[in-house]
């Protein structure tokens, strides 16, 4: 397993470099100008100096190599200095956003907590709901519980989050006025009263995202359980006199989790990437909203950095899923 992990990590290096190059070239080829919002009254020579200050006067390959240096060398040194109190990165140019003129990683660090609180909590709730529903639906196939679970899952998976989000706002935010319809990102939890205010404003976006995630994962869980419940080893375990709970939860569930782990692991990067549509609906000032605003402003450093971080997370969590296969099923070996 260690050799497999090392091989995958070494293979990830050229893969990530290729991905970063593709993203950079796509952004370069995309229409739009980072200085497109500059008033027409600004003289051309001033506009050209602004372009030079943003580094847009250099060739694309020079800007790409500079970004690689900043991402893999300057930024890690900066955060090391911040953690240890050293000065290794003094005088080095960090990745700067065209839109805010602030270091990109500083802006991302400000938005990450909001995204993790809302999107992360919704993913945890969705997984905790989906796995029990999938197990019971498969074990009690065609029962009333299975029929209701199938109906709710199909509704949750087929309805887009922008639709369910608006419906929740109309019903619970406007008509009943149970929960605030706009998420207050400036709210700070200091006591129990402010804690419940935070919980109330999280309920609707978390519920919308959890319903969508649970619908998808529960269907995979049910299908995997049904596939394993009919296997010979299950009949053998029952014939040996093992209790039904032990057969289902120890033998069937462990094997059934293997494909579900893939779905869960590949969905985890979306927690860090943010829920773009839902964050827009509820005005959550997270990474998803940051990415949309950066795209609208043609903020190439911000878009490039965010999408590349998302690509890194996908590769990392795919590797974690492969390693978990060997943990869940001892028969799986990569060496």
TrEMBL record:
SUPFAM superfamilies attached to this UniProt entry: MetI-like (SSF161098)
Record key words, sorted: Cell membrane, Membrane, Transmembrane, Transmembrane helix, Transport
A Pfam family that the UniProt record links to this protein: BPD_transp_1_N
Cellular compartments annotated: Cell membrane
Annotated membrane topology: Multi-pass membrane protein
Main location as per UniProt: membrane
GO BP terms, alphabetized: transmembrane transport
Residue ranges occupied by any ABC transmembrane type-1 domain in the UniProt entry: 112-321
Entry's transmembrane regions: 116-139, 151-174, 194-215, 257-282, 302-328
A GO CC term assigned to this protein in UniProt: plasma membrane
Family: Belongs to the binding-protein-dependent transport system permease family.
Protein's name according to its UniProt entry: ABC transporter permease
Organism this protein belongs to: Paracoccus onubensis
Lineage: Bacteria, Pseudomonadati, Pseudomonadota, Alphaproteobacteria, Rhodobacterales
């Amino acid at each position: 397993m260690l050799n497999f992990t090392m091989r995958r990590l070494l293979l990830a290096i050229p893969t990530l470099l290729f991905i970063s190059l593709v993203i950079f070239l796509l952004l370069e080829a995309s229409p739009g100008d980072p200085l497109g919002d500059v008033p027409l009254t600004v003289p051309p020579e001033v506009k050209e100096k602004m372009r030079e200050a943003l580094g847009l006067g250099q060739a694309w390959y020079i800007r790409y190599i500079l970004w690689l240096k900043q991402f893999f060398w300057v930024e890690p040194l900066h955060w090391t200095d911040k953690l240890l109190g050293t000065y290794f990165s003094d005088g080095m140019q960090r990745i700067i956003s065209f839109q805010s003129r602030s270091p990109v990683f500083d802006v991302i660090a400000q938005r990450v907590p909001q995204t993790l609180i809302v999107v992360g909590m919704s993913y945890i709730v969705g997984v905790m709901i989906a796995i029990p529903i999938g197990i019971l639906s498969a074990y009690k196939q065609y029962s009333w519980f299975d029929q209701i679970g199938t109906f709710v899952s199909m509704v949750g998976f087929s309805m887009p989050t922008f639709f369910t989000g608006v419906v929740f706002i109309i019903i619970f935010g406007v008509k009943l006025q149970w929960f605030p319809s706009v998420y207050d990102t400036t709210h700070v939890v200091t006591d129990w009263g402010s804690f419940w205010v935070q919980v109330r404003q999280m309920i609707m976006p978390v519920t919308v995202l959890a319903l969508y995630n649970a619908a998808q994962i529960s269907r995979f869980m049910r299908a995997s359980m049904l596939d394993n419940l009919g296997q010979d080893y299950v009949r053998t375990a029952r014939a040996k006199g093992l209790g039904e709970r032990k057969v289902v939860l120890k033998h069937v569930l462990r094997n059934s989790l293997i494909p579900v782990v893939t779905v869960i692991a590949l969905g985890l990067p979306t927690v860090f990437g943010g829920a773009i549509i839902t964050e827009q609906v509820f005005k959550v000032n997270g990474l998803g909203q940051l990415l949309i605003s950066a795209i609208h402003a043609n903020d190439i450093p911000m878009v490039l950095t965010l999408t590349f971080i998302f690509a890194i997370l996908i590769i990392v969590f795919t590797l974690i899923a492969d390693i978990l296969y060997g943990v869940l099923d001892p028969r799986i070996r990569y060496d």
